[in-house]
Design goal:
The chain is about 40% helix and about 20% strand. It has about 400 residues and is an alpha/beta fold. Helix 3 (about 85-100) crosses helix 4, helix 5 (about 190-200) runs parallel beside helix 6 and helix 7 (about 245-255) runs antiparallel to helix 8 (about 260-280). The relative contact order is 0.12. It binds adenosine-5'-triphosphate and magnesium ion. Adenosine-5'-triphosphate binds near residues 189 and 209.
């Protein structure tokens, strides 16, 4: 019954002169995402409003679900748009609307009229009262409650009259493409896909790097990471994924360095290589799924030592979050089920029984001196043999 959706966006409305840039990005993102939905859609901007108009048959549920994944959208209102043909015609349309939207008429309501066009012959208050009366006449089971109505019927007098009573929540955030690019270190775990989602929600375009260690990690572990990237791409759009073969570097560290320092040294080389691709891709920062105290390599001391190799800012959106809160987001964005599949990732295989939890930078650097002979060459080979995959939403 709805041919149009009114798209509400809050935060971007306050960006002053840049406002149109944000709105245009949002319009473009909506067009991009709706291309995958069955139906014909027209997205337009009008007087600080974005509308999605549909043409012919379309899948309502799929359309709404798709809009709910577009960052920058705060609310999605299925709306009825009518020409102004006088008050009686309007009242009739509103009553039809109520009849079709609410089969069960046992509800309280309030009419909330607004005039964006002040030349309408009635004031907002007059419209509220008159339309309210018509609804009560047509559906005597309904009643008015101006303080806590169950149904709020919005009537906005614009060039077209907008009638709506439902606002489906959107994801919020900022439109993609309005904040630059960042490199996500994407593993097969629960945390990093959530971290990527969160930063992307602020309008940041994602690129990703995954380190695997064949034959210690399987082809299925790699496929799992690609699957996770596909899930994140449903929100963030296409992700350029770099798959780095990390085996020789890992074996070399294993051979030369104290095993309790293995994870931390490995993490430092991961950051270095990821930063190489980040610079190449003109990223403005890197993103990890680290959270204080979660594991030995994520104590404040460990994080400081890992961070020391990076020149770019490293964004860690989960830094102060508890696991359960991270899991809730993973469930919401549908990455959780994939993340908990049991394939080994490259960190779990070489992990020491008693890893250092308070590494000192001096010590770690001293251990790394033992890698001098071959590490540059191994890093170069890892970079040269990296596979790049363009991952689209599934
Ligand atoms: P996750 O659930 O994201 O795997 P984790 O709790 O397993 O995190 P770690 O293994 O210590 O934590 O990794 C911390 C962060 O380092 C990850 O969130 C991710 O950003 C990055 N990272 C770890 N392993 C890899 C990998 N194999 N490839 C790419 N990034 C990785
Ligand atoms: Mg992990």
């Amino acid at each position: 019954m709805y041919k149009s959706f009114l798209i509400k966006y809050a935060e971007i409305a306050i960006k002053g002169k840049n406002r149109y840039l944000f709105e245009d990005a949002l319009v473009q993102n909506i067009r991009y995402h709706l291309e995958r939905v069955e139906g014909t859609f027209h997205v337009r901007k009008e007087n600080g409003r974005i509308y999605v108009d549909t043409e012919g048959e379309y899948d309502y549920d799929e359309t709404v679900e798709t809009l709910q994944r577009i960052f920058g959208i705060v609310g999605i209102c299925p709306v009825v748009l009518v020409e102004d043909e006088g008050f009686d015609a309007l009242a009739k349309v509103v009553c039809d609307y109520v009849d079709r939207t609410y089969p069960d008429k046992n509800f309280t309501f309030k009419v909330d009229a607004r005039r964006a066009r002040k030349n309408y012959p009635m004031t907002s208050m007059e419209i509220n009262a008159a339309v309210g009366e018509k609804i009560l006449e047509a559906f005597p089971e309904t009643s008015v409650d101006v303080h806590h109505p169950e149904v709020m019927i919005h009537i906005e007098i614009r060039p077209m009259i907008n009638i709506y009573s439902t606002e489906i929540p959107g994801p919020g955030g900022m439109p993609l493409g309005t904040a630059g690019r960042a490199m996500l270190l994407l593993s097969g775990g629960i945390d990093s896909p959530v971290a990527g989602y969160m930063v992307s929600k602020r309008g940041v375009t994602l690129e990703a790097t995954y380190f695997h260690a064949p034959p210690y990690t399987s082809e299925r572990a790699k496929q799992k990471v690609i699957d996770l990237a596909k899930k994140v791409a449903r929100y963030s759009g296409q992700i350029k994924l770099h798959v780095v073969n990390f085996t020789d570097i890992q074996l070399y560290i294993y051979e030369k360095c104290p095993h309790e320092e293995l994870t931390i040294i490995m993490r430092r080389y991961m950051m270095k290589i990821a930063e190489h691709f980040a610079e190449e891709g003109k990223c403005l920062g890197m993103i990890t799924g680290e959270s204080i105290g979660q594991v030995a390599s994520q104590t404040m001391q460990s994080l400081a030592v890992t961070n020391e190799v990076c020149h770019m800012p490293v964004y860690r959106p989960l830094i102060a979050m508890d696991k359960q809160d991270i899991v809730s987001i993973a469930e919401k964005i549908d990455t959780y089920e994939t993340s908990i599949l049991p394939y080994e990732d490259c960190c779990t295989i070489f992990v020491a029984k008693h890893p250092v939890t308070k590494p000192s930078l001096k010590h770690i650097k001293k251990s790394e001196c033992r890698l001098e002979e071959k590490i540059d060459e191994l890093m170069q080979t890892a970079i040269d043999t990296t596979e790049t995959i363009l991952v689209d939403a599934e």
